[in-house]
Amino acid sequence: MNGAWGQAPPPASNRPAAPAKPTAAAPARPPAVEPPAPPERLALIRSRGELTICIWPDYFAVSYRNPRNSELEGIDIDMARALANRLLVQPRFVDTNFAEFMDRLEAGSCDIAMTGVGISAARQQRVAFSKPYMTSAVYAVTTRESNRITRWDDIDTVGTVVAVAVGTLMEPLMRRSLKAAELLVVRPPRTLESEIQAGRADAFMSDFAYTRRMLSVHDWARVIEPPDRFGEALYAYALPRGDASWLAEVNNFLTVAKVDGTMARAGARHGLSGALVY
Known about the structure:
Elements lengths: L40 H8 L1 E6 L2 E2 L3 E3 L6 E2 L1 H13 L2 E6 L5 H7 L4 E7 L2 H4 L2 E3 L4 E3 L2 E5 L17 E5 L4 H8 L4 E5 L5 H6 L5 E4 L1 H10 L3 E4 L8 E8 L3 H17 L1 H8 L9
Parallel strand pairs: 1-5, 1-6, 10-11, 10-12
Antiparallel strand pairs: 2-3, 3-4, 6-14, 7-14, 8-14, 9-12, 9-13
């Protein structure tokens, strides 16, 4: 046959490819929505008209609730009120301790901790620090009648019990330093002085502010000064991390307070002039 119908079909390899079937387009994925940034702390403080301040109310000369009248007193109480006044808001003090204050800051329960917070590398992982305003070495407190401890070298001896407050800089310092003495970590509601008076500790370790106040309050207390500024640390105010404007505001407050005499007057009022950092 001469027609096309009579011709043999071409080899498969030479046949034209069949047109591709259209595929259904994948549904468009909605663009990712970033969560809104949290409001800046400074704006929140001003909008609610209140500055919340974490304190340890047993910190003599720094943030102390006087048992005679339940009034708060100390250098950081004065400074907190000055900061609130600068912001045109009311101060509200929140009781905490050194084992918990960072949890409070991270949870938003406090805007700032103004309670003589020592700067350490471990704390800097969780909170931001202002410029330093105070410094101190670590001192020992024992009783005037103690025969076991009469000088610094008597502290780290077999049979001696040395107390520190939980969460303070003194806790890791004494864990590293003591080789022979036993370490007693004191947790609220117990206090360092009550452990001494009850005979559960022979001495406790604290800083300049706490130990100088002990001498003015308790006639049984004796302070032993350290050699070579043992355990010296800088103190600052602690804030939640990640808020540059709030940190800048607190640092500006400190700068002005150091220049206009606010900090000097607070330090002198509570016997801490020698510990201030300018």
